[in-house]
Each structure stands twice: as structure tokens, then as C-alpha cells.
């Protein structure tokens, strides 16, 4: 074979692979609210399939599959799923049902089909082999290349609407009771005073007759506004009337008399309504699945999804956050419960997040797309960097630190607008009051003056923990049980912290110190001020004003060293880089965990002892946000794992595997 033909064959195979992946993605409905991409190829580029198979064998997963399936399964490759490409899941919904769908690529249809449990009947729907869950709320269909999964959950509030109840033949359980009827004396009256057994049985029989009637043909065709006609057996209107005898049963229950027959009757109603809803949901799922298979909903716009590289394990895309909120927190529920009808508009148009393996680091990154107004507000608010003088206090051996920087002037300027946007639409009844509060806030505060006092850059460093002696009140008793109050001491472990922020106008802090000293609430330690501690917690708070900075901490010696320039701190370069690049940085020194637990005298279960000790080999855990770039507010969470298994995913799986062995 010539080299040109080999090149053409390679191009054809690569093109076919890409085309199949694109076709799978195009089957996601265009109105999907959430799309999740699983990059299984990237997963198994970082994790050995042999290791996964060994762990699953230990857990007995393949044995469980083999007990129910038609062919023996020994490894993941026998499942018939294509692990060298991507799988997709998505969420979409209406006011009546929430759909959860998945599209999974197959490498071998026959292998996958052999996994179907022996007792499961395979139907032919939309020209494809299909199996259902017992309640038909989940359907799986497959062709030569793709497994289609579709589940549905009924929205309960939809089926509580009276017109919907009438449409589907649901029986109401919110009966109106005759409040004017006299309540019988529970002491003077016995159950035998009324032929309860006979009457209750008759009531149950009448309900059972209603249920039977609702399940009899001929069926009526009803339509949901968003779906093609669905066939549901609907009873005549007269058949679903609630018998008057309910009222007597309720009057008996009002006297706290218990009746098994009453609850049997309620259970019968519940079972009927549940069976109708399951039937409706099952038919809707079939209709929805057919639309997905044939592409009837149109294709999802793939440009909304970010590109996945070889280190991205999974990606989630949520669009139109406002409608997503309103689906789970519908306006009618807020209106009925609280008399408000919120718009739930927080200025966020969409959210994207990814799970990434970067060497021994596992990262979760995310970005929220802001609307035009919120982009303007947050860009100005987060336009602030940390004071470079603080970098020296980012000690390598610190337990952790938290830096948060915002432009105080911009925050005060835009806060009224943010307040009105968030809560004005949330509580329309009080919109004018909220606007008034926002105006008063804007008028009363001088943002420029406040920004000089508190510029907005903050650094909080947790240097570790220390033990202190604290006093407390107790009581001692003599032989005659007479007591007297005594003062005792005990050892407490408290955090050792240092908080610092910048100020171009420190006069107010000096004045506070002067007034505190005069009122004997503050003690002056030669320029380091101590707030008198009243709670007996052992945490004494001190503050220092120096070089346009305010330091607050509970280590007097360190603050005195800072004041006299005896302390020459040197920041840890990686920590400085994090704090310098980001508007928000939170870091925890994971390798300090074993020592910290020991110092705090926290007991550790024996099964976790090895894992806790191993954390001394970990890197740092951190949460970062670089602020707003373009119209996106971004952030990430990450942790560095030990470099013992080649990458973070392999290490994490090894830990889980060892746990499974212990279990």
C-alpha cells in the first residue's frame, strides 16, 4: 500500500471519529438548560484501566452484573462502551416535567446488549431496542453507536392544578370539611355508636370503584402544551366526585379517633394518582426520547461549550440561570407562600465549570457570565490589589491565609444599585422601601472619605495554634453540700492570627484608642493597644497602627516586634504570587494537618490514621478568584497531591482503592 493511501486511510478514520463525536453532541436538544461533558478519554489517559478493573473486581461489581446479565463480564472493556471519546448528559424541563438525558457512545452494541438483565423485556420503540425501569420513569434505547438514556421527574405543583387534575382524572385529596357541624364528645361516644365498619367499608368500595373506572377504556386523548398528544385513561367527571361520607370520617378524626379504614381510603387515592402520573410521565418520556433520536428539537449550539483539552476530565455548562432558578423556585410558590413574586434576576446569565488534572494538581475551575450592569459594577468593585507591604507576612510555615481585595469607594457607590437589583425584584411589595434605603445609603455615606479610612485590601494570616492558660469560675461542695465559688485555670488551644488592612486616614483609629484608654476598655502597651478581654476565652486582641496600615492580632510579642522593626518577615514566593494575581485568595497548608490535629488533641479513627499521616506529603489547598475579565467572574479550587502515582487522578484513585480494600 502506498504512503498516500495510508495517509488517506488515516484521515478517513480520524474524520469518522470526529464526525461521530460531533453527531452525538448535535443530538442534545437545543433548549437544554444544563449540558455536562464527560471526557472519558482524558480520564483513562490519566488512570490505568487495569487498576480500575482490579478495584471493581475487589468490590464485586462484575459479579453482580454477571448474576443478572446474559454474558460474563471481566473488565470495563467488556461493557461495550467506547471509553476513547466523550459522553454527554443534559437537563431540560417544562412546567410539568424535568428531563435528565444522557448520550453514551458504544463500541460494541452486542456486548452492551448482553448486559441487559435476563428478566428485562426488550421492546422496540422508535425502531430501537429499548428497556424501561419498573415505574417507566427511566428509558434506555440504543443503536449501533449510541446509548440513549432518558429519565423524567414529574413537577408536583403542575399536577395540583385543578384543570390538570380534571384533564388526567386525578382525585383531589384536599376535601372541604363542614366546620359548622357539631363535634361529638369523644368520651360519650363509642365507635359502636355508628356503624363505622360498615360505612367505612362502603366508602373504601366506592373509592375502589372510582379507581377501577379511571383505568377502564375508552381512553381520552389529552395534550400537554409542549408535547404531542398523550393517551391517558380519563374517567367521567362524575366518577371522581368525593363521597359525602368523607365529612363524617373527618369529624371523627377531629376528635383524635384513629381509623385504619380512613387511611386505606387515602392510600387508595394516592396510589391511583401516582399510577396516573407515572403513566403520563412514561408516555412523555417516550415522546421526548423520540424527538431526541430523530433530532426533532434541533441541535444544541456547540459554540456555547468550551473546548476540552487532554487534561479536562469533565465540563458543565449552565445557561440562562434566571430561568433555571425559576424552574426550581417558581414564582407561584413564592406568591402563594409569602405574597411575593420575585424575578430572581441576580445578573448572572450563565455558568461554566471544569474538572482539570494538571500534573499532581486537581482543579475545579468556574466562571459566571455577568450581564452588562453587573459587569460594570463588579469590574469597578474588584479593581483593587493587595498592598505590596503585606507580602512579607505570607510565611511559608503559616497554617493558611485569606486575602480579599475590593475597591471600597466603588463598593459604596454601586451597593445601592446592587441592593435594588437583588431585592427590589425579589420583593416587589417593598420595592419603594428598598429604593429609599438605597438612596439613604448613597446620601448618608461619603464613599471617598470611607475609602481613605478603609481602602479595601485585606490579608488574614493564620500562623498556627498556641496553648494558653485561662481562668474560669467553678463551684466546690463540702460534705453538707454547701458550695463556694472558686477560680480555676485550664489550658486552651487557640488560633494565632494576624489581620492587616491599609488606611490612608488613620485618625479614627488613633481616636478610638484614646477614648478606649480613657474609658479603661483599652490597655496601651507602648503603641500596641489591647482590647480588654471579657469572655475568658483566652483570646486577647491587640491592634497596631503603623505606616498607613492597621494590624490586628492576638500575639503581643509579634506586634511589638513589627512596631519596633525587629521583625524581618520574608514572604513565601508561591504564596506571594497567588495573593498578587488574585482579588480573592484562600490557602490552607494541608501538610500541617497531622501536626494541627495532634496539637488540638483531636482523636483520629484508626482506619483514617494512615491517610491523615500521609497528608504531610500533600501540597496546598486553595480557592482563588482573579476577579472580572471581560464579562466573566472566574475562580478556581485546587489541591496538590503527593507525587507518587504520576498525576492527581491516579493518586486519588489509589487512595479510594486502598479504602475499598479495608472495607
Helix content: 25-40%
Q: Major sheet: size, sense and barrel closure?
A: 20 strands, antiparallel
Total number of beta strands: 22
Based on CA atoms alone, the radius of gyration comes out at 34 Å
Alpha-beta classification: alpha+beta
Instruction: Give start-end ranges of low-pLDDT stretches.
Output: 1-21, 175-229, 233-243
Mean pLDDT: 79
Distance between the termini: 55 Å
| Percent strand | 25-35%
Describe the protein:
By secondary structure, the chain is α+β, with helices and mostly antiparallel strands. The protein has 21 helices and 22 strands. It has a 20-stranded antiparallel β-sheet, with helices on both faces. A hairpin with a 2-residue loop joins β11 (348-358) and β12. It is globular and about 85 Å long. It starts with a helix and ends with a helix. Mean pLDDT is 79; it is low at 1-21, 175-229 and 233-243.
Features:
single chain, 663 residues, alpha+beta, 20-stranded antiparallel beta sheet, two-stranded antiparallel ribbon, 38% helix, globular, disordered N terminus
